[in-house]
Design a protein that fits this description.
The chain is 40% helix and 7% strand. It has 98 residues and is mainly alpha-helical. A two-stranded antiparallel ribbon has the order 1-2. Strand 1 (23-25) and strand 2 form a beta hairpin. The mean pLDDT is 89.
């Protein structure tokens, strides 16, 4: 029988190659994960961001709104995502389509 349980390496591989921005912060808003999409579009590699406060690295972020959203994630022990209908962008990246 084939084992389909995902390994940590496989999950990291997928998150790093998905064509969507994925990042994880802790309760202190310190970046824990910064995938390749985020690095490519922000111009900052994971080494430049991981371990640092998200709002210090990106002072233009809507801090009050995002901090409130993140607080609910930690209080409810749940995940969250942002769609363009809620907010046209969180990080203002350059367009990559013609």
């Amino acid at each position: 029988m084939v084992d389909f349980s995902p390994s940590k390496e496989l999950l990291e591989f997928i998150v790093d190659r998905i064509n969507v921005g994925v990042f994880i912060v802790n309760e202190n808003h310190e970046v824990q994960l910064w995938n390749k999409f985020m690095a490519t579009n922000s111009g900052l590699n994971a080494g430049d961001v991981v371990g640092k406060n998200l709002f210090e690295v990106f002072p233009d972020l809507p801090q009050r709104w995002l901090a409130r959203k993140l607080k609910s994630v930690f209080m409810l022990k749940n995940f969250s995502f942002i769609s363009w209908e809620q907010r046209p962008y969180l990080f203002q990246f350059n367009h990559n389509r013609p």
